[in-house]
Amino acid sequence: MRESRFMLLQYITGSGILVLGAMHFALLTLQPGGLPTSLQYSSVKSVYLAYGLLFELLLVLLSFHVFNGFRKVLIELHQGRTYEKAVSWLMLLGGSVTFIWGTLTILVFILGVTG
Amino acid sequence: MGRDTVMEKKNNAGIYRGWIKFWNRNVERWLYAMHRITGVGVGIYFVLHIWETGNAAQAFLNNQPAQWNNLMSSLTNYAFHTGLLLVAAAAVFHSLNGARLIMSEQGWLIGKVERPTYPFLPSSLRGIQRPLGIAIVVLSFVLMAFAFYQLFVLALGV
After folding, report:
1. For residue B59, which residues of chain A lie inside 8 Å, CB to CB?
2. Does the beta-carbon distance from A29 to B58 stay under 8 Å?
3. What residue segments make up the domains of chain B, in order of their start?
4. What is the pLDDT of residues B34-83, one digit of tens each?
5. Which pLDDT value is given to residue B72?
């Protein structure tokens, strides 16, 4: 994929994270009692049942945005083609592992709530 | 020298002069450096957050509220909440400045092209992007104060 496409995707995922991230923070802080209340066992249960899909979408966007961001920063060092390819593959691996790990975590939460 | 040749050239400025040494430059260069620093910081936190949440989720799988409460208690301390406060500030700044960068890239916040006159300030820096950049820093501090209230006043009872 061309670098301009990667950058376009970086902007699109960034915009999505801005909206979903704000919702994530709002869920944590804007309910009565604030952060301590929202981190109680019963509150987390109800939030995950209602917003599990939102967290999964946020995870997809973040996995791409974060690891593509790392890739852009490291590639700017311009240490040659082999270095750039190695960085790209490493970041793809890192992003994939993080995404799978996060998805399993969300599933564990939901299965724990419903199981 | 062709464009491809330039792209292949090694970054001789290196990490220190190329990325870190920004204090003798203009506001935009400061914002660029802070965007990088906060981006890397929040990115590392994201990976740690997935790991931490993955451990916490076990309490749900076992349906053990006591296990969850113990974990939350162990994470409720000054050191951890100071770290969370820095992450919140970095996330807010990175998000808002990212929105500014997207708009600047479209040319919406950039000053119009003009004939260069003394003191030769680039016309591209005369748009609203510089005041907006400063407003973003101020707004980040305001939202950081809200995060302080949540993390220290409500959670730790300071």
Report:
1. 41, 112
2. no
3. 3-154
4. 999 999 999 999 999 999 888 888 887 777 888 888 888 888 899 999 99
5. 87
Which of chain A's residues have a Cβ under 8 Å away from the Cβ of B108? none
- What are the extents of the domains in chain A? 3-114
Between B134 and B64, name the one with better pLDDT.
B134
> Contact A11/B102, CB-based, under 8 Å?
yes
What's the mean per-residue pLDDT of chain A?
Answer: 89
Dihedral (CA of A99, A92, B43, A63) sign: negative
Phi, psi (degrees; rounded to nearest 5) at B21: -75, 90
Enumerate helices (H) and strands (E) in chain A, giving the number of each.
4, 0
Which pTM does this prediction carry?
0.86
**Exposed e or buried b for every residue in B13-47, given b needs 16+ CB within 10 A?**
eeeeeebeebeeeeebeebbbbbbbbbbbbbebbb
pLDDT tens digits, residue range A4-39?
899 999 999 999 999 999 999 998 898 888 888 888
* Domain at B3-154, CATH class: mainly alpha
Cβ-defined contact of A101 to B11 (cutoff 8 Å): no
- Which residues, including other chains, have CB under 8 Å from residue A7's CB and lie 6 or more apart? none
Pick the CATH number of A3-114 from 1.10.260, 3.30.450, 1.20.1300, 2.40.30: 1.20.1300
CB B96 within 8 A of CB B136: yes
